Amino acid sequence: MTRMVDIVGRAYRKIAVGGTGEAIEAEYVAEGVDTLNMMLHEWKLHGVDIEHTTLDAADTFPLGPEFEMGTVYLLAEKLAPDYSIPQAFSTREFFDAIRAAYLTIEAAAMPPAMIWLPSRHERDRTAGLL
């Protein structure tokens, strides 16, 4: 299972802070996990309510594996400005896909006047249905 620290490490590698196979310094891990928690909480403002609670570095990442890559890139985008690293990738499609996965459409209620039009009422009356 993927841990929060794994997501953070992969995000740092996307912006070239630390190399493949290198351990990331504890202060970077702490900063990355804090940023990841804030980002996951922030998603609720954009209609993605994953019911996130603040997690520690060793905790399991709360989403399925299909969300890992997008989260890594979105976190890298959040971390990059702190290291004056220009972003060389787009995260728009990742967040759009995450948002679509959590999209809920509430049932709509139609007022009877919208459903029972006068023409329908007349048709039903002449057909003997009323």
Structure summarized in a few sentences:
This protein has 130 residues and is mainly alpha-helical. The chain has 6 helices and no strands. 18% of the residues are buried.
Largest sheet: none
The figure for the number of domains is 1
Radius of gyration: 24 Å
Mean pLDDT: 88
* Count, helices: 6
The proportion of residues in beta strands is under 5%
Briefly note the structural class of the backbone.
mainly alpha
- The N- and C-terminal alpha carbons lie at a distance of 63 Å
How would you sum up the global shape? elongated
Number of strands: 0
Question: Can you walk me through this structure?
Answer:
Helix 1 (4-14) packs across helix 2 (26-42) and helix 1 (4-14) packs across helix 3 (68-79). With 130 residues, the chain is mainly alpha-helical. Helices cover 48% and strands 0% of the residues. It contains six helices and no strands.
